Amino acid sequence: MKKAIYPGSFDPLTLGHLDIIERSVRLFDRVIIAIITNPAKQPLFSVDERKSMLHDAVGKRFKTVEIDVFHGLLVDFARRRGAGVIVRGVRAVTDYEYELQMALMNRRMAPTVETVFMMAAEQYSYVSSRLVKEVASMGGSVSGLVPPAIERKLRKKLQQA
Ligand code: ADP
């Protein structure tokens, strides 16, 4: 049974994330999408909101996908959940350095947990949650970059802010 973890902030989920999730589902028996709760980061969407967005976008579609939340060390979470693989997406060279550091540090702490990198889909290789929020906050369209339901939630949330 090949179990993988796909960790991230997902604040909010983009079609780039979704592409990585769909590809992971084809490769692994079970995929745990792990929402990172980082106290140092001020998210736009609460953990519960992000969980529910992920549930609507993928939880219902794929029986082998599970959505969970974690804080602390990812490798501890991976051990606890019995996952041997961490999935990460790589967009541009700018992602590379950070991802390399993380992967090597995680390997040092947990040599049996392997980090697997997937190249971003061409059409989403410039898409990040941060840029999506920035564009949406200034009234720009993010249609085609996030699921339609998330685009609506973004607009509503930014109106409240
Ligand atoms: P983090 O806060 O850890 O960067 P994200 O939710 O932004 O979390 O990203 C989670 C993972 O998804 C990271 O490996 C990131 O590189 C990857 N990712 C983010 N956006 C895309 C995208 N458009 N295409 C492919 N991978 C992506």
Write the layout of secondary structure elements.
Elements: E1 3-8, H1 15-27, E2 30-36, H2 47-59, E3 65-70, H3 74-81, E4 85-90, H4 93-109, E5 114-119, H5 129-137, H6 148-160
Parallel strand pairs: 1-2, 1-4, 2-3, 4-5
The chain binds adenosine-5'-diphosphate.
Structure description:
- The protein has one domain (3-125): HUPs (Rossmann fold, 3-Layer(aba) Sandwich), CATH 3.40.50.
- It contains six helices and five strands; from the N terminus they run E-H-E-H-E-H-E-H-E-H-H.
- The protein has helices at 15-27, 47-59, 74-81, 93-109, 129-137, 148-160; strands at 3-8, 30-36, 65-70, 85-90, 114-119.
- Strands 3-2-1-4-5 form a five-stranded parallel beta sheet, sandwiched between helices.
- It binds adenosine-5'-diphosphate.
- Adenosine-5'-diphosphate binds at residues 8-10, 14, 16-17, 20, 88-89, 91, 95, 120, 124, 127-129.
